[in-house]
Amino acid sequence: MNVKDIDLRSIDRSTEEGRKEWFRVFIDQNMAHNYIEAKIVKKVIKAFADAGNPIVKVDDTEEVVPVSTKREILEQVFNLDECFLLPKNGGYIRIVLGNEWDALVDYTLNIEDTLKPVNDWISKHSD
Predict the structure, then answer these.
(1) Which of 69, 79, 85, 99 has the highest count of CB atoms within 10 angstroms of its CB?
(2) What is the pLDDT averaged over residues 86-108?
(3) Which of 82, 78, 80, 54 is nearest to 68 (CA)?
(4) Would you state the pLDDT for residue 25?
(5) How far apart are CA 110 and CA 86, in angstroms?
(6) Percent of the chain at pLDDT above 90?
(7) Is 73 domain-assigned?
(8) For residue 107, which of 125, 94, 121 has the smallest C-alpha distance?
(9) Confidence grade of residue 12 (pLDDT, cut at 50, 70, 90)
(10) What's the chain look like in SS3?
């Protein structure tokens, strides 16, 4: 069954397992709905991991959450409208969902080289 076809109301959230399943489906549906942003965020995660400067925290301006896996990062990003990805070696990438190709709304200059392949991919595919 396609994740888009699952009705969240059909998932029993009375147990811990049910709540985890509901959250997993919610995130997967949000990524499917925001598929352009999902591709971009996945490329950002990969670019920073490949550069040896992985994303280690997600900041929603009220709470900073440590993350260590791709899935944890995606769960944080796609549970919010806007956030900051924080790489291990400093800097930030501000992401705003709903902006499609313009999801990366701001970032610090010290990480511009790491984001170059992502920005090049966006430029190539957003036309």
Answers:
(1) 85
(2) 96
(3) 54
(4) 85
(5) 12
(6) 73
(7) yes
(8) 94
(9) confident
(10) CCHHHCCHHHCCCCCHHHHHHHHHHHHHHHHHHCHHHHHHHHHHHHHHHHCCCCEEEEECCCCEEECCCHHHHHHHHCCCCEEEEEECCCCCEEEECCCHHHCEEEECHHHHHHHHHHHHHHHHHCC
The answer to the question of residue 4 being in a domain is no
Judged against a pLDDT cut of 90, whether residue 21 lies above it is answered with no
pLDDT at 11 over 90: no
78 vs 13: which has the higher pLDDT:
78
Number of domains in the chain: 1
Which residue type is seen at 35? Y
Q: Is the pLDDT of residue 1 over 70?
A: no
Q: Is residue 48 part of a domain?
A: yes
72: which residues sit within 8 A by CB, 6+ positions away? Answer: none
Supply 127's token pair: 């036309």
Q: Which residues pair with 85 in a beta bridge?
A: 58, 93
Q: Per the domain annotation, does 7 fall within a domain?
A: no
For residue 48, the enclosing domain spans 34-125
- Structure-block tokens of residue 95: 């992401």
Residue owning tokens 């705003």: 96
